[in-house]
Write a structure and sequence with these properties.
By secondary structure, the protein is α+β, with helices and mostly antiparallel strands. It has 16 helices and four strands. It has a four-stranded antiparallel sheet, with no helix packed on it. The termini are far apart.
Amino acid sequence: ATFRLLMWEARMNHDPDAAQRLLDRMQVDGVPREPSVYHAAICSCLFTKDQLLPPSRLRYFLRHFDKTMVEDGIAQSAETYEHLINAYTSFQGIDDNMLLFARLRAEGIAPSARLLDLVLLNFYHLLLRIPPGIADDLESTWAQMRSVYDEMRSSGLACDEVTYMCMIRGASVAGDFDAGLASVEAMRRDNVAMTHGLYHSMMRLYLHAGMPDSAFALLPEMDASETARPLPKTFSTLLQGPVHSEEEMVENARRVKDLMDDMGVAPTTKTSTGKEQRVLSGAPKAVADLVVGDRLNCRWRDGTVHQAEVVELDAGASSRVYVHFVEENRRM
């Protein structure tokens, strides 16, 4: 009981070093290391704002805890895999989680709804990693993601906000709009409580499916909601649909600006990107005006907008701009 309390403290403090010392002390003192103790040690590796260790160090501890648990002869349950996959997911350890999911399948362990939600989330992040133009990888990953969702439905496991958010966003990235619309219908039938994340996911799907009116039609529903009223990010999402001309972009930006004025929402840098920002703020910023160090809002391949810093300018005919995505630590 003493070690359980100390391990819980290590978990709450996000301190895998302390968790490892406790496990070593338990072995020296001959105290059985039960599954709940290992689960707490694994949870100490969650990558949060309070976590001081880098992902590479957290990966080392997770692999060590996993290996030691097996060496102790402790049967790993669905709960164990859930904790491991959740910890890896916290710092996008996608490859590690794919191996864990394959191992869980090989051991014949029935996954929980929470575990499959985490797997769907990892498949979604995997979709985002696939470079444009690699259609085979995109189709294969999306097919695996859909099979996990089908398993949840056929097994009678409850599909929740995470399930549908992953499926709707995944369909947008994969370009499978029929599957995305089917997920929206299933979500409505299941009476899943609507959140900002779900509304924004639906907006992206409708926009990329060429259904902008359906995306804008969600605003009155959100406005009538007590828990998901429109945010600045809501209007930023409406600016992220594909456009085929500058005139179409300007028209869409003005439409969003009018709606923001009607609802009393002030434009911010997060509710405008690229040429849309010139419409909303009146501040011109052509490619020729950019300098290294400028901060921009750039659109990622899934339609989401992220803050980036200009790190290099190509003065050639391509007028290419290289930026560093501040949030993701990624250069594009």
